[in-house]
Amino acid sequence: MSRKPIIAGNWKMNKNLKEVFAFMANIDGKLPSEDKVEVAVAAPAMYLVPLVHHRGKNPLKVSAENVYFENSGAFTGEISPAMLAAEGIEYAIIGHSERREYFHETDEDINKKAKALIAAGVTPILCCGETLETFEAGKTAEWVSGQIEAGLAGIDGKDVANMVIAYEPIWAIGTGKTATAEIADETCGVVRSTVEKLYGKEVSEAVRIQYGGSVKPETVEELMSKENIDGALVGGASLEADSFLALLKMYM
Ligand SMILES: O=C(CO)COP(=O)(O)O
Fold first, then answer.
1. pLDDT for res 1
2. What's the structural domain count of the chain?
3. What spacing in Å lies between the alpha carbon of 11 and ligand 1's midpoint?
4. Would you say residue 1 lies in a domain?
5. pLDDT (average), residues 216-238
6. What's the chain's average pLDDT?
7. Pair type for strands 208-212 and 123-128
8. Which residue, among 99, 67, 72, 69, has the nearest Cα to 84 in the 3D structure?
9. Which of 48, 69, 158, 185 is the most exposed place for a label (fewest CB within 10 A)?
10. CB–CB of 172/126 below 8 Å?
């Protein structure tokens, strides 16, 4: 299988600009080769352009944490896929559980965002994941495949093949409670079989699926060794350069 792993930090609503520059200085020249792994950081909107300008020759992709689904117009406070594309921002996270929960984003909004990003040439990182209640009720597979079907509705297989999907169980985000590598792999497998059911084997073998939820330098290697896990989406452990670099150690 030739899926290239993708390790992405998600800074959420953290850091000031000085800290962003310090992070960049501390990772300068230290990232692993692009041949082995794709490395990205998702940052608050106001840091995206500075990140693109300061990455220099570092093989670091830049991701938005959210985006709107229109390209321009009277949508106060939003940023568009076209704006991201014009500044060389490669990825945008959509449907993070924090957006779904605190900002009431629906599967339909997320699907529109995915389509708008693809049309603009920005790669979506589509998030899915269940609550503790759903997990404990044994309904994870049903829930996650429903989110994936709704999120991908009407999108062409060739575009899905290039997307990234992140499975992030809500009960493991910021709690220090990582899903075991087995559980993470099993549910990433559910995501892959949902894609296979919708688009066939070729697309499901191409799409990259990340695990997210309390991933740490100590747990990342085992997670990455699993068949259905092609990367990680990392919150807390991506904030400091040392810990971010430690997540990438296996690729150095
Ligand atoms: O939500 C996450 C990444 O998008 C996970 O956050 P933590 O790694 O802090 O649990």
1. 54
2. 1
3. 9
4. no
5. 97
6. 97
7. unpaired
8. 67
9. 158
10. no
Q: How many Å lie between the centroid of ligand 1 and the Cα of residue 75?
A: 28
pTM: 0.97
**113 inside domain:** yes
Q: Determine, yes or no, domain membership for 224.
A: yes
ipTM > 0.95 (yes/no): yes
| 223, part of any domain | yes
Q: In this structure, what is the dihedral angle of CA atoms 166, 128, 221, 177, given to the nearest 10 degrees?
A: 150
- 179 C-alpha to ligand 1 centroid (Å): 12
Per residue in 131-171, pLDDT (tens digit) is 999 999 999 999 999 999 999 999 999 999 999 999 999 99
Q: Is 96 a catalytic residue?
A: yes
Annotated catalytic residue 168: yes
Which range marks the domain in which residue 240 is found?
6-251
Residue 202's CATH number: 3.20.20.70
Residue of 66, 165, 173 to mutate, ligand 1, most atoms within 8 A of C-beta:
173
Is residue 10 in contact with ligand 1, taking CB distance under 6 Å? yes
**Residue tagged active-site, from 96, 98, 105, 130:** 96
Amino acid identity for residue 24 in this structure: M
Atom of ligand 1 at shortest distance to CA of 216? 8
